[in-house]
Amino acid sequence: xxxxxxxGMGYIGSHTVVELxxxxxxxxxxxxxxxxxxxVLDKIEKITGKRPDFYPYDLxxxxxxxxxxxxxxxxxxxxxxxxxxxxxxxxKPLLYYHNNLISTLNLLEVMKEIDCKKLVFxxxxxxxxxxKELPIKEDFPLSTTNPYGSTKLFxxxxxxxxxQSDPTWSIAILRxxxxxxxxxxxxxxxxxxxxxNNLMPYIVKVASKELDHLNIFGSDYPTKDGTGVRDYIHVxxxxxxxxxxxxxxxxxxxxxxxxxxxxxGYSVLEMVELFKKVNQVDVPYQxxxxxxxxxxxxxxxxxxxxxxxxxxxxxxLEDMVRDSYQYFLHNQ
Length: 332
Ligand code: WQD
Prior knowledge:
Elements: E1 2-6, H1 11-22, E2 26-30, H2 39-48, E3 53-55, H3 62-71, E4 74-79, H4 86-91, H5 93-113, E5 118-124, H6 147-165, E6 170-176, E7 178-180, H7 199-207, E8 214-217, E9 229-230, E10 232-234, H8 235-251, E11 255-260, E12 266-267, H9 268-279, E13 285-288, E14 297-298, H10 303-309, H11 317-330
Helix pairs in contact: 1-2, 1-8, 3-5, 5-6, 7-11, 9-11
């Protein structure tokens, strides 16, 4: 069965492509490489022994997108492609709304035209805004505090309206918590260009002495030790969750949302201390003021994904901090 993976050369996309190939799906990737590197294709082939068809196209070019669908018998789509830097989205809202919404509209219109109506969409826990209670369930109120998060929420609305208009669609909306870690081969992992925004890649650059120290954004939150608490999920677990969601959309006709998290919240200080212990490396840090837009605490109630998808994250935080650092060491 042929599955199109948009953004399949990215961090989560490439790990999902590996899982798809290892589950004997045929994979076609469209990725404009704006936030990924072409050598990921070789890494995927090295891990799986299979090389997906790859098109370096931008989904905003509807004609090129249509060409790919005409050249393959695509039966389902996993849609990762999109810009995803929160801070950048605040500076460049039109870029984010144009890129993330037009690319998705193009994809949905072409899928409708050729009658391919099975879709897994990469959403984010950011659509829950600042939750009033924890753990977070899928029916909690939705709100966003930055353009990136708003693009994810608007696409969720588009998908729900599309299904209402045509219930022959089958759509799984996956709300990721905080993906970190790397493939056990250490051939795939997260290596953002420049100064990372996210905690784990920043810690790795401090541990490798590329950056001098970690700035911990606030220690006065109402949390176990005053620093921010998040639900970190290993990227391989997250990829496996996409296989479960694909199986769901192939066997049902509905639109539904699923939290992909572990259900466990760890603080920044807990993460730093465990990273140092597991990797036997120092991570100097300073406590500084809070980062604008951050929430205190966020972790998933994973029971609905377990019940509906049969998905449960298996790897723990030790696996995540080890794999993140080992990926760096293996790719210096
Ligand atoms: C985690 C914790 C920070 C960096 C973001 C996006 C979200 C999703 C995942 C796409 C927080 C603290 C961080 C640093 C720090 N991305 N921190 N120093 O903000 O939970 O979520 O990435 O879908 O949309 O918002 O992740 O890794 O940036 O922060 O103290 O240098 O680490 O305050 O408590 P976040 P993060």
